[in-house]
Amino acid sequence: MALKDVKPTRSELINTKKKIKLSQNGYKILKMKRDGLIMEFFKVLEEAKDSRGALLERYSRAQEMMAIANTIEGSIGVKAAAFSVRENPDITLKSKNIMGVVVPEIASTQVKKGIAERGYGVIGTTPIIDDTASAFEELVEAIIKSAEIETTMKRLLDEIESTKRRVNALEFKVIPELSEARDFIKMRLDEMEREELFRLKKIKARSTA
Amino acid sequence: MVQNSGGPAPYIYVSTRLRVRKAKLLPPEEYQRMLNMSLPEIIRLIGETEYQKEVDELGTSFEGIDLIEVALSWNLAKEYQRVIELAPGSLKEFTMAYLRRWDIYNVLTILRGKMQGMKEGKIKEVLIPAGSLDRTILDRVLAEENCERVADALKNWKMYPTISAELSEGCAIGSFARLENELYKRLYADLLQIARRGVKGGNQFLKFVQLEIDVKNIKTLFRMRGDGYEEDAREFFISGATFTPEELQQMNQMANRNEVIDALLARIKAKALQVALEDLRTEKSEQEVDTELTKTQLDHMEQLSKINPFSIHPILVYLEKKKYEVVNLRAIARGKESRLPGETIGKYLVI
């Protein structure tokens, strides 16, 4: 806001003062929100580190088990066993609120299954199929958990970023400009008051002379 | 019906032919040599052996390690079909009954593929027509639209009654696990019946099938324990051998492995299996247990074949040795492709 656009009137001064107060309150609240979000983010970050570690570990294990299963059963045997799996895990998306940020809460049906629930027969298969299926079920569980944490982390980061921009805008742009406008109006009003006083004194001096 | 007809001539003929074929199988030291080779060397070596014809035939459709795997499976299927062809009379029937496990595998794969709505080509890629249902029959079955039609197309198959009894439940719950278990139980029940009907070497074969059932049950028992399955597991055990499903269920609920091994050893008479069970006292994985027991079973089979040179045992030995040659070659090639260390691959070889 350029100073030339500012009307140096008392009502404008009152409005500007109100705006400054509002901006300062908003600034304080947003700063607190930003700090709160950062604290939340660090909490989620710890979880994300663990979940990402677990995900990588389970991915390596699943890959290793697949390699061994291909070695023992051949890819034909593994594919034939995979034909048994018909169900896909059902994913339910809910949302929760962390300091005004809507983050997903991902719930899934039981991914990890027992030997009797996987769809293949026990008599005609080998334990390596169980181990491989189990490793991949654990991997899917880790992916679902990770998806929730990583999305939460991403949304928190976006919100922190936008809150930070608002805080900075208030701190370095809006409040200084409003303060400048307030000071300008004050200065102009004082100037006008002094001019008025001087003019009155002149008139009084003339009239007494 | 399998009967001992035609005197010893068919046994001498088949046993001799298969002994010659067995002599052509790769010796154990060849696997050790292959473990030290690189993948391209292994692929080249396999392509230069008796698998060359299949490798050449399939060369346009597959490449690399997939070519080797499919070629090995095709060779196995062709070889088994040849054994069925060369076995006369009752021995043919016996061989077909023994190879019916491949039919079970193929039929279940087709049913599962159809249930999943997979394309014919995808299902066909994983079929191994090594049993009595040859490629022509399987192609016809594969062309059917859905599971019910597949079952109808198998009306003349020996195992149709089991399929017919279990299919509707399988389709309803979307799982053929129960059907699979029932088919294998039926397979072993049929083999026990054949062994009792007077084929030459039938008494030993009966013992062998019972040993196989024991081995299968013990493998299942260790898998159940490994999975922590504590519910009623009787439906997963095969009856007709040393243990009843109820006894195995009791063992499944025992607290520790040693207790189970003690309970098994108290009843098991086969010395080879006793030795293998003693070895299992260490904390081995379920897969290692499985491989150990398979090796024991093969050793026992080999011994029976030497004791009864002109009986059904040389047929069994050849069928199994051929299968494990394919399994071992595939394991070495796939293991090398996955960059598994030679020691790890060696652990899973059945030599």
Automatic annotation (TrEMBL), chain A:
Keyword Coiled coil: yes
Superkingdom of origin organism: Archaea
Recorded topology in the membrane: Peripheral membrane protein
Listed Gene3D superfamilies: 1.10.287.3240
Keywords, in A-Z order: ATP synthesis, Cell membrane, Coiled coil, Hydrogen ion transport, Ion transport, Membrane, Transport
Subcellular locations according to the entry: Cell membrane
InterPro entries reported for this sequence: V_ATPase_D
Any one GO BP annotation for this protein: proton motive force-driven plasma membrane ATP synthesis
Molecular function in Gene Ontology: ATP binding; proton-transporting ATP synthase activity, rotational mechanism; proton-transporting ATPase activity, rotational mechanism
GO (cellular component) term, any one: plasma membrane
Coiled coil: 146-195
Function per UniProt: Component of the A-type ATP synthase that produces ATP from ADP in the presence of a proton gradient across the membrane.
Matching NCBIfam families: PRK00373.1-1 (NF001542), PRK00373.1-4 (NF001545), V_ATPase_subD (TIGR00309)
Family from the record: Belongs to the V-ATPase D subunit family.
Description of how the protein assembles with itself and partners: Has multiple subunits with at least A(3), B(3), C, D, E, F, H, I and proteolipid K(x).
Official protein name in the record: A-type ATP synthase subunit D
Source species: Methanospirillum stamsii
Automatic annotation (TrEMBL), chain B:
Cell compartments where the protein resides: Cell membrane
Sorted UniProt keywords: ATP synthesis, Cell membrane, Hydrogen ion transport, Ion transport, Membrane, Transport
Annotated GO biological process: proton motive force-driven plasma membrane ATP synthesis
A Pfam family recorded for this sequence: vATP-synt_AC39
Topological type in the membrane: Peripheral membrane protein
Primary localization: membrane
Family: Belongs to the V-ATPase V0D/AC39 subunit family.
Name of protein: A-type ATP synthase subunit C
The organism of origin for this protein: Methanospirillum stamsii
